[in-house]
Design a protein that fits this description.
By secondary structure, the chain is mainly β. The protein has 5 helices and 29 strands.
């Protein structure tokens, strides 16, 4: 039902779309970027003339949104520049809100989007299902990035209320992007031009061919080849909505296409506001004086934000209980991450010693994952993954669930198992590490000591560290079994085998992987896990 409503809104008439003032949005694509670090425009690139379209044909769709969207090119790439703010309404209709708002981004110079002008078919086309969960996979004709339909926890954003009426929302850096096909752009583009380009260089058209006929013979990625257009993708009204993978060559690094622009953090990322629905959003020209309203528990709240004197952004929050507060953010909050409790060398309130800040992992959540058709991980003890049973958490008995897997790739010589969790500040926490699991194994029993060896959790425990979850709200934990081409040999004490140590040992040895994402919510005193 929610998906149908979203897709109906994506095709709103242009008059209604223009009734909303422009605003600012974009998402986190890798490491934060400090504005002063953006290099100057390369001298060898040249502006693309859009009036007579003397540049490459890929520029034509983007030219329809000039001057807000600017393009230039060299012999290899078309570069797309902008501020990440669409000229249509935003945010209204979101019912799963992480409290982000749309702020402008500096997608210019060396931080511009780039599209290969001569895409090369890949010898190993890559699906986006449970993969490429970070960063963009395409760029829309209006300069707004398009992300995987799945969020970085593996959920379909359109199914859980995360998207507005235009198929977008804001990421942790208050950056706006789509997670569904922006079919509404056809009000400006017409039906003959692509609505977007995938980052492998192939065009994404609307639901039909430019001549109005229905596309035939689409592959698993929503693409096919025709005599007039060559290979291209089509949008759809159900998953995958856009390109379901990459027919062309791309480089994958840390779970995303690399390279791609980086969003700029201004303030710390926040947690979801449970039960809230965004009821309205207005923004002034270039993001000046924006106003967002929401409702939760039958009461209304609002967020106003505008550029602050001396740089940064001034926010005014009116909470549903009527309280009001003001905050000014200047982009210095650990590049968007919350500072450690109490600060370095200080004690937080209550006199408890602050734990040291955890070093960032060298391996992303999806770095070594290789989903394979038919390779499946499940648990007879978890009938509904959206409700992780309390007995397997720190609020219950803290025992391990049973796990079953099947369909491992041919040639598997052993398995490893990892359970990890991405926190709101994008720190990876580890709950469970197992390796040296025999190739004949396909079941782990409930509350039993597993075969093989166990590594150390983020909190220093060897073996299973049951999730506690930091504060109220849904938290998502990912169990992944890795099929390995060779048995792992890791020297030293198991108590010194962290997630990074295990991943370093597995690198280059993974034949395939299968994942199970579970959700747990608690409403008691926050812990650190």
């Amino acid at each position: 039902m929610r998906t149908s409503l979203l897709l109906a809104c994506l095709c709103l008439p242009a008059a209604l779309l223009r009734a909303h003032a422009p605003s600012d949005h974009d998402h986190t694509h890798g490491a934060p970027l400090i504005l002063s670090q953006i290099p100057p425009l390369p001298a060898q690139t040249r502006p693309t003339t859009t009036g007579n379209l003397s540049g490459p044909p890929q520029a034509k769709s983007f030219a329809m949104f000039s001057p807000k969207v600017r393009v230039r090119h060299d012999d290899e790439f078309l570069y797309v520049e902008g501020d990440g703010l669409p000229a249509h309404g935003m945010m209204t209709g979101i019912t799963a809100w992480q409290q982000q708002v749309p702020l402008p981004q500096n997608y210019t110079g060396m931080n511009a989007w780039r599209i290969p002008l001569k895409p090369v078919p890949s010898k190993t086309p890559a699906s986006i299902r449970d993969r490429f969960l970070r960063g963009a996979i395409a760029i829309a004709a209006n300069g707004i990035p398009i992300f995987n339909p799945q969020n970085n926890r593996g959920e379909i954003s359109a199914d859980i209320g995360e998207l507005d009426r235009w198929g977008g929302h804001c990421g942790r850096a208050d950056d706006y992007h789509y997670h569904a096909a922006p079919l509404h752009l056809q009000e400006m583009l017409g039906k003959t031009l692509p609505i977007a380009y995938a980052l492998d260089g192939y065009a994404i058209y609307g639901l039909n061919e430019p001549d109005g006929s229905a596309p035939k013979g689409l592959d698993a990625f929503n693409g096919h080849t025709t005599s007039t257009l060559g290979y291209h993708y089509h949008a759809s009204t159900r998953y995958p909505f856009i390109n379901g993978g990459f027919h062309g060559e791309v480089t994958e690094l840390e779970g995303q296409v690399d390279p791609q622009p980086r969003a700029q953090f201004v303030r710390p990322a926040l947690q979801a506001l449970r039960g809230a629905e965004i009821t309205g959003f207005t923004g002034g020209a270039n993001g000046q004086g924006s106003h967002l309203t929401y409702a939760v528990g039958g009461k209304n709240g609002s967020v106003d934000f505008a550029p602050a004197q001396g740089g940064g952004w001034k926010f005014t929050f009116v909470d549903p209980d009527g309280s009001k507060r003001e905050e000014t953010y200047r982009g210095d909050a650990r590049e968007g991450r919350r500072p450690a409790p109490g600060g370095k060398g200080k004690r937080p309130e209550g006199g408890k010693k602050a734990e040291p800040a955890e070093a960032p992992s060298a391996f992303g959540m999806d770095t070594l994952k290789k989903p394979q058709p038919g390779f499946v991980l499940q648990s007879a003890d978890i009938p509904d993954p959206n409700h992780y049973p309390i007995e397997f958490t720190g609020d219950g008995a803290g025992i391990t669930p049973s796990l079953q897997w099947k369909g491992a790739p041919v040639g598997t010589r052993g398995f490893a198992l990892v359970m990890d969790h991405l926190t709101p500040d994008e720190t990876i926490k580890t709950c469970w590490l197992l390796w040296d699991l025999p190739a004949s194994l396909s079941v782990l029993s409930k509350a039993a000591k597993p075969p093989g060896k166990a590594g150390v959790s983020s909190r220093g425990a060897v073996g299973y560290e049951p999730p506690h979850s930091q504060g109220p709200g849904d938290k998502h934990y990912v169990l992944t079994v890795y099929a390995l081409a060779v048995p792992l040999v890791i020297g030293g004490s198991e108590a010194k085998v962290t997630r990074d140590v295990l991943f370093a040992a597995m690198k280059g040895k993974v034949l395939g992987s299968a994942s199970l994402t579970v959700t747990y919510a608690r409403g008691t005193t926050p812990t650190d896990f």
